Amino acid sequence: MIRFAGSLSSAHWRIVMLRAVVLRRVRRVRRVRRFRWGREVLLVGLAYVLYWVARSLSAGRTQDAFENAEILVRAERALGIFVELHVQVAILGWHGIVDFLGLWYFWGHFPLMIAFALWAFMRHRPDYLWARNAIFAAGAISLAIYVAFPVAPPRLVPGAGFVDTLQGVFALQYDESTLVNQFAAVPSMHQGYALIVGVGLYRVVGGRRGRAIMAALPALMFVSIVATGNHWFLDAVVGAAVAVVGMCVASHVEQRGLPLPRAARAFLSVKPPSPARTPEGAASFPRLRGVVRLTGTRPDAA
Predict the structure, then answer these.
(1) Does position 282 have pLDDT exceeding 50, yes or no?
(2) Is 179 left (phi over 0), alpha (psi -120 to 50) or beta?
(3) Model confidence over 175-191: pLDDT tens digits?
(4) Closest to 65 (Cα-Cα) out of 186, 151, 158
(5) Of 85, 150, 196, 274, which alpha carbon lies 20 to 30 A from 295's?
């Protein structure tokens, strides 16, 4: 009887200790999750502050914005691509298409980015980090251009003949929002971010469906920004170029990390990846390399 009680007491303490270990790990996981969410909210907030500063610096430069718009128009005429007005006139008679493009101009930008970010953050963390870094890098470049070269959009140019189609779609005054910079036509980050989100979705989805999404999102946004009178053709070209630079930066960070102090790299999740363990003979067998790349372990590992 004494032995039985002693063994029962020992088993009880083992259960208590195991429970304590599990609870500590659960608390640690919860702290890590809260830290990750807090970090992303902090970074997004910082990005918005920088955007607000850039918006404030360019908001009063109305004359510069219209003069720069004239420079852009002359450049498009020289290149033979000044056809934005013809595109808008061609769709104005199709009210359903006008409304759809106006709605997509709004919902296909920040709302789509936020939805993709939340989904990727919870389900596909490496792809989220890549897209986040691409957006931040492209956004930083665009802010510098907005301050140095403010440009008025077509719909604000007096006498140009463009119609502000968004006013017929949204009950609110779109330009009065603090999230909107009226003179941030170049580059078009509606176009740039649509390209980054499209590539980010392709990274997750892959295959024909992923390629279709990657092509459709920037193509639809291009039609939207031009048909609604919000951007010039060259805006979209520069926006796509800035997005490509941002994606190159994100890919470099993903592969090699950033030359920052260890704590900063850990905070931003931009540490270089650990070298993968490759079994002997893997270089001769592509299918075996695929197993190692996807799992990060040897196929024969216990």
Answers:
(1) no
(2) alpha
(3) 555 567 788 888 999 99
(4) 151
(5) 196
Instruction: Spell out a b/e string for 97-118, using b for 16 or more CB atoms within 10 Å of the CB, else e.
Output: ebebbbebbbebbeebbeebbe
Q: Can you tell me the distance from the alpha carbon of 175 to that of 232, in angstroms, rounded to the nearest whole number?
A: 17
Using alpha carbons only, how large is the chain's radius of gyration in Å?
26
40 in a structural domain: yes
The predicted structure's pLDDT at residue 34? 61
Domain of residue 77: give its range.
36-271
Instruction: Find the Cα–Cα–Cα–Cα dihedral 6, 11, 15, 17, rounded to 10°.
Output: 60
Count how many domains the chain has. 1
Question: Cα–Cα distance between 160 and 45 in angstroms, integer?
Answer: 37
Tokens coding 26: 């659960």
Strand partners, 151: 184
Token pair, residue 275, equals 């070298």
Residue 41 lies in a domain: yes
Q: With H, G, I as helix, E, B as strand and everything else as coil, classify residue 184.
A: strand
78 belongs to a structural domain: yes
Distant-in-sequence, close-in-space partners of 192: CB < 8 Å, separation ≥ 6: 138, 142, 239, 240, 242, 243, 246
Is pTM, for the whole model, over 0.70?
yes
The C-alpha atoms of residue 289 and residue 279 are separated, in whole angstroms, by: 9
Task: Tell whether 112 is covered by a domain.
Answer: yes
How far apart CA 177 and CA 184 sit, in angstroms, is 14
Phi first, then psi: what are they for 47, rounded to 5°? -60, -40
Compute φ and ψ for 77, nearest 5 degrees: -65, -40
Across 139-161, average pLDDT: 89
